[in-house]
Amino acid sequence: MPQPSLIADASGQKRFPVQDYNLTATLTSGQAFRWQCRDGAWEGVIGTRWVRLDSGLDSILAATAEPVENWDWLSDYLQIDVDLAPILAAFPRDDAMRSAVDKCRGLRLLRQDPWECLASFILSSTKQIVQIRQIVELLCERFGERVISLPDRAHAYAFPTAERLAQCDEAELRACKMGFRAPYLKAAANMIACQEVALEKLRELPAGQARDALISIPGVGRKIADCVLLFAYGFQSAFPVDVWVTKALRELYFRRRRIKLKRLQQFSATYFGPFSGYAQQYLFHYMRLHQRSAHNS
DNA sequence: CTCCAGGCGCCTT
DNA sequence: AAGGCGCATGGA
After folding, report:
1. Which of A172, A224, A230, A253 makes a 20 to 30 Å CA pair with A15?
2. In the complex, which nucleotide's C1' lies nearest to the CA atom of residue A184?
3. Is domain A114-231 annotated with CATH 3.40.630.30?
């Protein structure tokens, strides 16, 4: 005889009322790499908690494997309390941004753990998002701590700590398919583990100083630093310029002309307004959606 | 098969 | 300062 009450008792549940929150766009827009869709819901690990997110019409239903008293970790991660309207209203009113907002309405920026974000984006260079996901998953399975998930699920793991990854030798990391990025990740793990760069302190710095500190880490340049500034610390002026955004800016604003990276950075720093990070994420996701639909048609 | 991917570090001019 | 190149690995 089924006993659903047992499951209900053993798991935490909470419903978050939301407006204009596109959970799928948010979790598949290349900010975070561990979310998996199952039966129309999104399952993943935040810190040391497994969680399932079910998106309703005007709410998100969260279910954990263990009881939860304080849900701040989740509302903070999802940025539930952010009012999207003034952000969208601050975007430039050009055709490109209008199309992006139209196609990606409800896309949000997450607030992720700095170490997981940093490590993940060190692994991201010249990799497709599907491959980044695969590498991160291997890393977590092999070096992350087990976390409790639902009984019928595959084992779930936390993202490995910097301390743990610092103990790995390069061959163990390379075995997770990360290739030439292995020495960068190991060096970064060392620097974080020994507090040569104190990730928690970067929150209090001006964006420029935080960026410089991140760029001092091997394998971290301007683009990856901007990703961490934006996706982990919420510096909304950060504007990561990758190949997709370069393509978008050239096609939409520079009549397809060859433009130097420095020029694109200067343009984006002024043109997109106070929430340029959000604008960037809309452009990025829009370009990828557009590419995918063009290819499938 | 070739081309390219949420780049970076290093070596040339 | 600015430009070119190699780097592992696998998807398209």
Report:
1. A230
2. B8
3. no
Could you list the pLDDT tens digit for every one of the 297 residues in chain A? 444 444 444 469 999 999 999 999 999 999 999 999 999 999 999 999 999 999 999 999 999 999 999 999 999 999 999 999 999 999 999 999 999 999 999 999 999 999 999 999 999 999 999 999 999 999 999 999 999 999 999 999 999 999 999 999 999 999 999 999 999 999 999 999 999 999 999 999 999 999 999 999 999 999 999 999 999 999 999 999 999 999 999 999 999 999 999 999 999 999 999 999 999 999 999 999 988 777 665
Name the residue type at position A297: S
Residue A32 CA distance to nucleotide B4 C1' (Å): 22
Q: Taking the domains of chain A in order of start, what are their residue ranges?
A: 7-82, 84-101+236-297, 114-231
CATH C-level class of A84-101+236-297: mainly alpha
Distance A57 CA to C9 C1' (A): 40
DSSP A79-143: TTT--HHHHHHTS--SHHHHHHHHHHTT-------HHHHHHHHHTTTT--HHHHHHHHHHHHHHH
Tell if A36 CB is < 7 Å from nucleic strand C. Answer: no
Q: Name the nt closest to A125 by C-alpha to C1'.
A: B7
> A108, A80 in Cβ contact below 8 A?
no
